[in-house]
Amino acid sequence: MVLFSEMFVSELIGIPVVDKLQEPVGEVRDIILSLGEKFPRVTGFLLKNPRGAVLLMGEIELVGKQFVVTRAIKSRIVYTDYTRLRPDEVRLVRHLMDKQIVDTEGARVIRVNDLKLAKVDQDIRLIAADVGFKGLLRRLGWLGFFTFIFRIFRREVPDALIGWDHVEQLKTDMAAGRITVPAKHISEMHPADIAAVISQVHTDEKTALFASLTDKTAAESLHELEPKIQALLLMTIDTKKALGILDKMPADEAADVLGDLPRENAEEFLRLMKPRKANKARGLLKHPDETAGGLMTTDFVVIPHNLTAQQVIEKMRAEAPEAETIYYIYFTDDQGKLMGVISLRDLIVAPPATLIDKIMVKDIITVDPETEQNKVAAIISKYNLVAVPVVDKENKIMGIITADDVIDFILPPISRRIRHLLG
Question: What's the predicted TM-score (pTM) here?
Fold first, then answer.
């Protein structure tokens, strides 16, 4: 078999197919590809003729840019029914051309404009996707003209190819909804970048992408999404998966997400969630978003004040893993009232036998749950705090607001920005 060294799918579509005696057989309508290998193999050509059949590669003698030649004469060619493709086979034009691929390096969604084929040993294989302007011009038949214009100005139409060995397939239930993920698996991206990608793809692909993530990665990404997308994803994925994601989220983020769902759906999730996480989320949902209560998290470390520095460190080892931040440790009396605070640095450098009462800061800056978010941000900025506690009228600590919560408020992710716009 002969194949030009560089060949694109757009150059093959529509070219004539002839038998060994140069008798016309049909035209190339599509190309059949077998997935599963690093460089997928072409298994046949779907012809545009009265039969609409697939010409298998074993029947082909030559593939060129001007025509395809079969091994046998027209009357002896063996065809396959194109409606009986194997589960691992797709049609390049129908299933991959113009479909979206996710550029994980740039956290963007781009479109496949053309596909590059090459001869590897005795096979024709898919080696790259063209996602640039050049691929689009080639498809439209304008590449020659624009190449001429560019050369007048001593420039070239740039290539934008993604090698297929850097592409991973993410399959949905429908081949037409298949998307590809180049460079590395999407779960290795930063959650904010994953959210940006999910926001750009079509509805079926949003669900497919989100469902492919681990519960932990999905939980980190969900809070970055627009409320409508959050609701769509949680209500379309498997309920067990949704509950696993909510369980991995901090209580304050879970409450934010549940607060954007229709009431009946939020209540159903709260009923099915683990009691401890559900109770925390219910408590947070009582507070308006624009207040300290709506901004705070209930995952923090509170320890009795009548301990030594060494005892506090030992107690933290057991309790701190669930806390959102452990830079500050808060101390309470027997009634749960806030007595003092100490930074992790001061705790570590203190002699082990030192009583916490002697080294903790007792003049604590606090806010109440009704404090407006702008004022909370001003307090954290003014006193250069990593976190500020939220206390009730009896000075019992209800939660803390961390500096990153304030940053999210000042420079909000998509979800929080939309939430503010909607009021």
Answer: 0.63
